[in-house]
Design a protein that fits this description.
It is built from 5 helices and 6 strands. The strands form 2 sheets. The chain has a 4-stranded mixed sheet, with no helix packed on it. A two-stranded antiparallel ribbon has the order 2-4. It is rod-shaped and about 130 Å long. It comes from Bradyrhizobium sediminis.
């Protein structure tokens, strides 16, 4: 009887050992995966550091396809602004990702250009809304009518007076090939005629 009892105890011990070994063997792959990906690897103390939260912020894209730049495990491609991951320290030490909205900048080239198109001629003593536009052009292109008072920058008027006449003559003399020579003139006349109007139409701002 003692021999049979001893054998049964030995069998039970062997079975218990085999079961325990099987349980330990099954848990080893899961532990290794967690340690490599979420322990001291990408999300633990390696990629982002202890107690830091990766924050995803937009960055300028150099091409048509966007790309995630930084310590992200994956970098999907697609159109749009690129993303940059920046680690930010937190008080709780938990790992989270904050994605801010992409910022878009208005392209200044889409702003309509200012043109200087004049449909009729102007001369001394005229009163016309186009006189104000002519004065604005002269004031912003180096031929200032006056530094203060009526006709000065920001205070242009609709009256074609002596100040407008003098500034226009100076402008015509500064561009003889485009304004004077086509009409056989050697000096400015102060008359805002077809040649001067056509030359102003070439300016775009």
């Amino acid at each position: 009887m003692e021999v049979v009892t001893t054998r049964k105890s030995l069998v039970r011990a062997v079975l218990f050992f085999v079961i325990a070994l099987a349980v330990v063997a099954a848990s080893i792959p899961s532990a290794l995966f967690a340690a490599s990906n979420y322990g001291a690897g990408t999300y633990g103390g390696g990629g982002y550091g202890q107690g830091e939260t990766p924050v995803v912020t937009p960055a300028a894209s150099s091409g048509g396809n966007g790309q995630i730049v930084g310590s992200s495990p994956t970098a999907p491609s697609g159109s749009g602004p690129a993303l940059v991951i920046v680690p930010v320290a937190t008080t709780t030490g938990s790992t989270s990702v904050e994605i801010s909205k992409p910022q878009f900048v208005l392209d200044a080239s889409s702003t309509p250009a200012v043109s200087y198109q004049f449909t009729h001629s102007l001369q001394f003593r005229d009163r016309d809304s186009d006189v104000r536009r002519l004065q604005q052009f002269l004031n912003t292109h180096g031929f200032v009518l006056t530094r203060e008072g009526d006709g000065s920058p920001g205070k242009e008027t609709s009256f074609f007076g002596a100040l407008t006449y003098r500034a226009l003559v100076q402008f015509q003399n500064a561009h003889p090939d485009e304004i004077l020579k086509p009409s056989g003139l050697s000096a400015g006349t102060g008359f805002f005629g077809p040649n001067t109007r056509a030359y102003l139409a070439t300016f775009r701002e």
